[in-house]
Structure formats: C-alpha cells, structure tokens
Amino acid sequence: MALKHLFTVGSVFTALLITSFSTTEAQIHLPGPRFEHRDLEGPDETGPLVTPGVFDYDAQLFAPVEFTNSDQLESRSGFYASYDRTYLSVSKSPRIDTNTNFIDTGSHFIWGSRYEVGWFTEDESGWAINYQQSEGNAFANGQNELVPNPTLITNAFSSVELNRVFRQTISNGGTLEPYIGLRYIGVTDDTIEDTSQDFVVGILPADNRFIQKASNSAIGLHAGGRFVRRTGRWRYNTDVAMAALYNQQKYFASDILQEINGTNIVTSVSESSVEDQSFVPAIDLQFDITFNVTRDISLKTGVQTIYLWNGINRANTLTTGLNPNSIITGFGADSTNDNRYLAAGFIFGFEWRR
Questions:
Q1: How far apart are CA 96 and CA 79, in angstroms?
Q2: Would you give the end-to-end CA distance of the chain in angstroms?
Q3: In whole angstroms, what is the distance from residue 307 CA to residue 168 CA?
C-alpha cells in the first residue's frame, strides 16, 4: 500500500514539473516587438534605417538663434526643407531657315519655383531631392492688333535631382558638401500662329492655324559640390555641379486649314512628327546668401545659371509662310535640331532647419 501511495505522489509531481517546463518554454518563445534570431543577427543589427533622433523636432519654429561656438552656428543634422521663387532669363526659340541656320532671337524672363528636401545623419551624410520648374510666354513676329499673324511661344523648363550628399568641415572653418546622383532636365517649346486668309487653296482664300511642340527629356549622372561658410547669422553658399545627360528629342507640327467658300467651311488637318536622341552636357552654378531670422527659419537670395551646351531641340519661330515645318510652305517636320539653352537669373525664398 505504501509503495502504491508513493507511486501516485511521484506521478503527480512529474506531471506538474512537465507542465511548468512547457509553460516556461512557451513564454520564452513568445514573439515580441523586437525580432531577434540568435543564429543570424544580434540585437544591435535590427536598428532603424537612419540614426535615432534624426527626425526628432520640438516644433519651435520661432525659437531664437543660439550660438554655441564663438558666435557661429554649427551645421545641423536631421530633416530640412527649402522653397524658392526663381526669375530666370531663358533663351527664346530661334528662327531656323531652310539651310538649318540658327538665328538667335534673344531671351526673356519667366517665373518659376524650386523645392528641396533632405536630411543629414550624425555621421555627416544624407540624401537630398530637388525639383525646379519655370514657364512663361513670349511673342514672335509682332504682338499687337496691328500685326496680322503674331506667334505665341510658351517656354518651359524643369529639373529633378536625387543626390547622395556628404559633409566635411575644412581647415578654414567652412564646410564642403560633395554630392553625386541622378538628374532629369526637361525643356519644351509650344508655338501657335493663326493666319487669316493669307493662303490660297485652289482659287479660294483659307485660314490656317500652325502649331509646333518641341520637347526634350534628358536624364543622366549628376555630380557637384557646395561650399558653405557661416558668419554669425549669415551663411554663404557656392554650388557647382555638372551633368552628362541622354536626351530624347521629340518634334510635332500641325496645320489646321479652313477653306472658306461662301457659307461653307471645309477643315483639313495635316500633322507630322519626328524623334531623335542627343547627348547634352550641362553645368549648374549657384551662389546664395541666407540670414537666420530664427533658430529654424532663414531667408535666402541669390543667383543661378544653368547652361546646356548642345543637343536641345527647339521650335522654329519663322512665320508660317516661311517655316519649312509647315505643310503650307514645306513638307512638314522631317528632323529635330541641336541647339544650346541658357537659363540665368535670380532666386529668393526661405529655408527650414538648413
């Protein structure tokens, strides 16, 4: 009887021990908020993408400027952004005769905007994204009611950059920020010219609307550097960059002809298009001065120059009666062209935490 009682107690004790061990094992292997696999990685290898604290911000936009080093502001890490208005003088669309001779028509100013966002980590490296766009109108062949057929031209310029940026303090107290990345540049010309009974189809006078669209989509490698010098609340920036771009050119021309025969109007449309490719070397120069109004907000003004050496397809601003791309006087578009492009002017805006 004693042996039987001992066996019963031992069985109960063993069952309790197994149940306790299983519960402990289950608790040990419960999933937690932080993944850890002992065979593949240590707990320090599952950290965030960027340094902790980079995106911390106290939201005190108007906190006063604080000098911590001989009245000179230190370079900051973390997220930053800027917005600029641009007022650039851009090359007008040229006149191109039947021998493909380019006749320069000067330049005109157009308004635009530029945006930049990015961040720097504690180890003085980061990323930056830039977007710039400008658009404006000009006239050729006259621009008032005394001119029978003025040509309205719309010029547009755009640029997008994605850069990997590094920062290093140099011996004279300034900082150097080299960068490398990808860049896209777009240049377009749109023209429209209406002529009233200037052409004769058969024996009847006819109205015509001549439309052109020349576009460029260039993308390639982009590299440069920015030198930054701080003095009190002032910061001076000199930025030099170069790019090697592959350009996809497109040209489209259309004649919308209306033959007038008494009360009857017969409309016909003639369209032509052509595409080509070109290599576009580019240089981008900028100098600006910023003033820290508060700890996080700065005002900025400066100048910018963007020069595309060659390979830019432009619309032809010769009037319809002389334009070889019009079906009225030629055979429509048969080729693109390679021309230069210059945009230079003024910038002004503000920055946040730059």
A1: 48
A2: 88
A3: 28
